Structure formats: structure tokens, C-alpha cells
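Table S2 (continued). Query chain:
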Amino acid sequence: MKQRDYNLDLIKTLAIIATVGIHLNACGSICQIYSKTWNFFVLFGSLLRFCVPVFCMATGYLLYTKDSIDINKILKKVLKFAIIFVLAEIVYRISYCPYMKYLYGEKIVLHNIIEDILQGNIKPHLYFLQIISLVYLFAPLGILIVKNENKELSYLLKLWIILSMCTLFLADIVNIRIFKIFNIYILYGAYNFIIYAMLGAYIRKYKKIHLNFNTILCILGFLIGYLGVVFIMWKLSKTSGQSDYSIWDSVNIFTFLMSYSLFVLALKVKINSNKIKKILTLVSQNTLGIYLVHVLFTDFIHNMDLDYINFFGIEKILILFIDLFIILFLSLGISILAKKIFQRN
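Corresponding output:
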């Protein structure tokens, strides 16, 4: 029996906490730029940008390092994600109806709701299910590459960092015109998340090398990445005169530094407490459930004007972290309960 990797559980726990934090923090985007609340929005939001890359790395860490894989199982998994995608959007729409009718006084017209969905207006966070589906679909080839490579994967990752992370990023941010030619390769595509998964597999295959990296340098790498994201967002927002958080959604060297450094640091942590192991295992096994359920609570907070931006002084920060803890706890509980119900049936 394989020994459970509690460090990977830690990584997934940090990623899901960051995911919920991002959605709670999002309301700060409407604040006046360079106000105290807006600055906190930037500082806190930038700190959490590692969540999606780290989730992809964790998936590749486990999935792409298998000896072999059943393609039928992969297709069933992707089909499951597709079903969850549809059902989740339906549940979100239904949950929003009471707000429409009783809070905003709007009529609920089924035709309009269906038309809106068909126009592609879905909950933004559901894009992660599409990303993770691509990561799974690439698994047969990913496993083959990781299993048979002989330093070629290192070359591929370095090439990706130079072209996609640095060159195109500089072309857009610094406006270096000669680099614009690289845009013909459309290197900002969703394939980047597949490469993040490959990076996770690479870290596991050469785990000893990564664990031997200096801890101080890893912490420094994370801080440089974080400060870089903050600086670029401040710069872009100043130029446009409004919140410009394109850096948060783009593939860039700073988010890469945060994600890679955090992943390696989490692998280095020694976890000895059985209680902590149980908590990390429980959260890790329910990350999908938390991811799906937490939006119901963030919507409630937003629609009832309970967002942290509606409070004053230090209360803003306290409310944000209290909300974060409560939502994580409730979402985890609902996920565990839902699993038990489905398992009985």
C-alpha cells in the first residue's frame, strides 16, 4: 500500500484556501484605485495567484508520473467533469433566483436564463473544470513523455519559461515591439496549464534535486514573484486609470516564481502531527467539493452587502478572514455530507 503524501495534501489545501480567498477578495476591484481598500485588494489578491498553477502542478505530480493509464478511465473522468460543469451552473442559477425575485425585484424568465447560459455567461470560476479536463486528456501523452524523457523535459520547461513566461510577457508589459512577432505562436493559450502539470511531474521525477534547493532562495523566489505581480498591477492600473488586473489572469514569470517556490517549499515541510495529517487529508480529498460549494456562500455575502469593503478600518481585514474561515468550514462540511449521501446510493 502506497504511503500517503501529506505534503501534496498541504499543497492542495493551500491552493483551495487561496481559491476561496480570491473570490472573497474580488469585490475590492470596484474601489477607487490607490485607496487603502484598493491597495489591500491588490496586496491580498496578488498573494493568492498561485492557486490554479499549483492545482495543475499537483495534478501532474500524481497523474503524469504513473507507469500507465487507462484511456477509458480518463474519458470517464473528463465526462464526469463535464456533467459537474453543467449541474453546477444549474445549481448556481437556481440559487440566484431568490435574490432576483425578492432582493432585486426582477422577474425570473426561464427562456432568458437558458439564452444567457447558451451565450456562454457561466460562473467564471468554472473555467477550472475545463482546464483540468485538458490536463487529464493530455495524460496518456504526458505519462509517455515523463516516463521516457532523458533531460528533454527540462529543455521543454526552460523553453516554455523563456518564450511564454518572459518574452511574451515583456512584449505586452514593457511594449518591446520586436518581441511582438512571437504573438504569432499564441503562446498564452490554455496549453500553459498542461505545461504546469508537466512541471509538477518533473518535480516528482527529480524530487531529490528540488528538495535540495536552498529554502531561503525558495522564500526569496516567492517574494520576488509576489512583489513583481503587485508592482505590475499598480503600474498597469496607473496607466489605465482604473483597476487593471490582467497580470492576475496572464501567464507570467512572477506567478510562475510564486507557484514553483511555494510548491517546493510545501514539499520541504515536515508534517509529524497526526491531527494535522488528518485535517490536510480531509481538505485535500474534498477540494473539488469546496471549490463547487463555496461560490454559494460568496454569492450570499455579495448580494447581502456583507463584503469586507462595506466595513471600516481593521474590521475589513477581520471580516475577510472570518468569512474565509466560515466558508471553508461550511463548504468542507457540505462536501463531506454530499459524498456520504452519494456513496450510500
